[in-house]
Automatic annotation (TrEMBL):
It comes from Metarhizium acridum (strain CQMa 102). Keywords: Signal. InterPro entries: Egh16-like. This is Gas1-like protein. The keyword Signal applies. Residues 1-21 form the signal peptide. Pfam families: Egh16-like.
Amino acid sequence: MNAKSLCKFTIATLMTSCASAHCVIVDTIGSASKAHGYGMGANLNARRDGSGTAFQKDTTVFAQFSTAAAKGCGKTHMQADRRVCGAPGYDPVLADLNNDIPSSTERMVSQGAVPAAYPGTLMNITFHQVNQDGAGPFRCIIDEAATGLKWNNLIITTQVPGNRGLNNAAMVRNLMTIELPERLDCRGTFGAAKSVEGK
């Protein structure tokens, strides 16, 4: 499976009716390897024992409310906080930058944190819900060519609870399971491997 395609797929799961849902993808695993991944922008060392702003620093947000308008892999709340004058790390230029896909992907590769899955199998995605507006339901989309231009919906077999991005939970982990198509044609590169594809 293409690393770029996987990145876009996992991060796109965050897009729901609430574009700035306060949740973080803390684990992903597929059927083709034992590798565990995580969402773009996530800091696995971040504290998860609170629901205020201090615990939302690595939640990824999107400017678009529609999956059809998806561009890139969003930006972290930490970057958004750089807009606040006087806040730690204040830098309005950096605040407008999306998550750096190439460097983030390379970091995941070096950590062995890019999961793989066979066509027609299930993939598990675990979300940490920071507060009440980090709930589901979610939609999952994938761009097999890794261009960010052509997206296809994926079937969700286990959905995250919620109504329009809200529920009464906080500081909990939610499992979402998605089903990959039988005919999956991922194209591109993953590390040293070229023309990676699965059909």
